[in-house]
Design goal:
Low-confidence stretches: none
Order of helices and strands: HEEHH
Radius of gyration: 21 Å
Strand order of the largest sheet: 1-2
Distance between the termini: 43 Å
Number of helices: 3
Mean pLDDT: 78
Strand content: under 5%
Largest sheet: 2 strands, antiparallel
Structural class: mainly alpha
Helix content: 55-70%
Number of domains: 1
Number of strands: 2
């Protein structure tokens, strides 16, 4: 329990500088005020980037990317604490190694998904 509190506090301390408060200006989209997406002025644009659904998709992908990174760092920190405190307990060492292996597999799977999305969507996702 002590290690979980240490890991949780380390994650909070490491992630705090990356959370920035930004001012939000409301835009009107089809008569509805929204601060999440920006609609084109006449809604006559045929570009994919001007679509509200596309902008929401980018927001979700960016949030997932940040979440995956934070979770991976937290998993590696937790596994390293487990490994360092294992002493002579071979089951705890195996648990830490399995956790590190799972984090690396998860990161590889996310990288493959990200590259597949950039390959399938014309122009890439993050451009």
């Amino acid at each position: 329990m002590k290690y979980k509190k240490i890991v949780a506090s380390m994650i909070l301390v490491l992630c705090a500088p990356f959370t920035a408060i930004t001012p939000v200006m409301a835009a009107e989209c089809a008569g509805v005020e929204t601060s999440i997406i920006d609609c084109p002025t006449k809604n006559k644009s045929t570009k994919t980037e001007d679509n509200g659904v596309w902008q929401l998709l980018l927001i979700v992908i960016n949030i997932l990317t940040a979440g995956i990174g934070i979770t991976a760092v937290g998993g590696i920190i937790y596994a390293s604490v487990l490994y360092a405190s294992a002493e002579d307990k071979s089951d705890q060492v195996n648990q830490a190694k399995d956790l590190i292996t799972n984090v690396v597999i998860g990161l590889i799977m996310f990288a493959v998904m990200w590259s597949l999305l950039n390959f399938l969507i014309p122009g890439g996702v993050f451009t």
